[in-house]
What we know:
Blueprint: H1 3-32, E1 34-38, E2 40-49, E3 56-65, E4 75-79, H2 83-89, H3 91-100, H4 103-107, H5 110-141, H6 145-160, H7 163-174, H8 179-188, H9 198-225, H10 230-238, H11 243-270, H12 275-279, H13 289-297, H14 307-338
Antiparallel strand pairs: 1-4, 2-3
Amino acid sequence: MKKKTFAIFVGPSVFMMVLFIAAPLLSILWLSVHVTQPVYEQVEVEICTPGLLGSVCSTELKTRPLLDESGRILTQTTFVGLQSYRNVIEPEKLRSAIANGSWRELMNIRFWSALRFTLVFTILTLPLVLGTGLLIALAVNNTLQRIKGPVIFVSLLPFIITPVIGALSIRWLFIGDGILTAGLEWWLDRDIAMFAQAWTIELMMYMYRVWHVAPFAFVVFYAGLQTVNNDAVEAAIIDGASRWQRLRYVIIPHLMPLVIFLTLIHLMDAYRVFEEIVGFSASAYVISLQWLTYEFLLQDGTGARAISRASASAILTMIGVAVLLGLPLRRVWRERKGS
């Protein structure tokens, strides 16, 4: 292919990647090491109060932001280096918690509490999503042909629902006198409050993520099952292999590239967990790294936003995603190099 033709084909994609991926990343990195603050000035203000013989006046210093000619607040940008990252990580409190061996003290630090939940959520739901998706794919693959279409449609419904709407639906089923809560209370003959403690909320969030994402894994695995070598399966049957042995030694090795693909997708998606926090109103009990970034962007009492700390939190989140993706990508690289 000629260089000009190659440039015509690749140029638009490269331009869009630079515009929508590289440029925002660079801007976030720049914001994380700079702090933009309003410029204030101190002025003397005379305050007069009425009295019997006349007004009593006094002066006091007040701080107010400077305005430009158009009435907008003047700001100045200062390079702060890694200070925003220190404000997010809080290394002094971290060292104190480690020195005291206090898990409670460590979990009182917002970043490390968010990191704990994010890692547990990501790692715990990964095998559940893969296993559930594979089981659904195997079940549908062995379903009668005439009912296979409706079964596939029903299996895909959780994935079709918008994430926040799905989380709200699950929350309404369990909160207060929800249908499932009422059923559990009748069955166990005791009062149940699923939203009164952190561990039950986390458990429901794990269950919701598996329920919502497993259909995607099912679609991928079901497509992979259609390409399994039937000769290899028949040979295994002739050799006396059980159903489990055929699954372990024939089908799963064939699906391993898809397992790695789904692992990469899940790690990137679950590490940025946010919809579950919103849908389950769980921010009072557990928070994620993505929620922490959102918190920094909220206005404080003065109307200011911690944009620099939010950018630092976003960069740390991306670093965490890169670290998690390292192991499966290393496996892919080794297999590619070996082939």
